Amino acid sequence: MKTKTKLLTGAALLAGAGAVAAKKYADNKDTVRKPVEITNQQFYLIGGGLASMAAAAYLIQDGHVDGKNIHIFESMKILGGSNDGAGSIKDGFVCRGGRMLNEETYENFWELFDRIPSLDHPGQSVTKEILDFDHLHPTEARARLIDRHGKILDVKSMGFDNNDRLTLGKLMITPESKLDDITIEQWFKDAPHFFTTNFWYMWQTTFAFQKWSSVFELKRTMNSMIFEFPRIETLAGVTRTPYNQFESVILPIKKYLDSHHVNFVTNATVTDIDFKDDDTITVKVLYLNKDGKDEKIILNDNDICIMTNACMTDSATLGDYKTPAPKPLEKPISGELWYKVAQKKPNLGNPEPFFGNIKETNWESITVTFKGNKFLKIIEEFSTNIPGSGALMTFKDSSWLMSMVVAAQPHFKAQDANTTIFWAYGLYTDRLGDYIKKPMKDCTGEEIFDELLYHLHLIDRKEEIKKDIINVIPCMMPYVDAQFQPRKMSDRPHVVPKGSTNFAMISQFVEIPEDMVFTEEYSVRAARIAVYTLLGINKPICKVTPYNKDPKVLKKALETAYR
Questions:
Q1: pTM of the predicted model, to two decimals?
Q2: Is 154 exposed, middle or buried (0-12, 13-18, 19+ CB in 10 A)?
Q3: Could you report the per-residue pLDDT of 188-199, keeping only the tens digit for each?
Q4: What superfamily does domain 25-84+244-356+487-535 belong to in CATH?
Q5: Is 159 left (phi over 0), alpha (psi -120 to 50) or beta?
Q6: Residues paired with residue 468 on neighbouring β-strands, in sequence order
Q7: 474 - beta bridge partners?
């Protein structure tokens, strides 16, 4: 039986080598416009995150658009979308999440940021700055999984049995057309042991999967990151930025766009869009609420609208040391606009599967700020990783499934030599804690930190450790896992929908064949597709590298499955 299973699994993994690549958007000739040389052509970009900023950069660099004709509308007072980072020594710092990069699979991200100047190193690009930093601070996690006894587990083995291997292998060769609305749990219903393996705990917490997440996304992630499979226990493939992503990614591209006089409009919410009353998808009117006042923007025939159709950190709330993160009260602003436009025209997707169940799409993070480095030294002694060399430390028996990571210090430019920070998160916010007998979502920053100390077996030292705390800021993100929800293939719209003349959608909620969501690359690739297609730019877009069709990579993956 073992030999048979191995052969079947090997065949499943190797079958991708002969698979036909998915049709690219560049082939959608009916949506491609020829460049129109009109100096007053206006470009309206909805959402102030990475995708819109990338689109603006592509418009300038490859579309030769005058920056003053580009307008970016952001509903919040700050730009950056999910690439955030803020705070001070006095009040504490906060990053809602950790946005990992990857050198091998971020093809368009690196290409774009190789054209964006570094803020800190004159004459260098952001790409070179990040990769140089990462190569000097390589990741090699030595405490990836920790059990209830505070013991670091040996996770060299994935922990698979033959049924696990067979079921995972079957997924790798199953066409996506047969995976509509199927969850990971449903796919592995006859292989429940899979959810007890080292692989599942590591893969789940690296990418924030749940059992009820779409098996689409597990398959896509495995295909895209299959070369990462043999080193998942160390997360050696994680590429670090010198500082948080707001300062290392958003601020450089913002300064670049400012230098080209791009018009950023903050505290401005696009509440609705009107389309031309015909068979095309042609935007005619934007309805805008700016600082509480309603405005209307009428588009001319050659103007273009590029819309962020949803944001995974939409409606996030912040607490503090003594206050839980408030329950999100409002509907997701970006998702609400998507609801409206999807009802007006075909081919604009269906937001319902993604934004219909907060209980399944939320998780919560904390950012902890200390005076001094006592706590980080304790973690360093425990894990044997200096700050910045480790990765996620997951407490696999935690009822909240907590993980933490210590970045290289300083993680914020405003930190001084006597200030340190780390970040942690929990996936199961509705469950009672093991030490704090409350749901995570109802806990103060202090209570969440106490729960973490319990799992580190440091609860007897809590008063000593907590003397150095400046703040613990919890962040509840109700839709942060929304892009993983079970769905039909048709629920995510194409970047440039069929029939569009001047409209595109960009985000983690659009459909890009073969690519994996929950990445910076996805946002940048979507932006590039949108700009090149709508402007008819005849320049290749970096394709998804087919590591799942590389025999050498597949051989290593197969060997890993039997470790």
A1: 0.92
A2: exposed
A3: 999 999 999 999
A4: FAD/NAD(P)-binding domain (3.50.50.60)
A5: left
A6: none
A7: 366
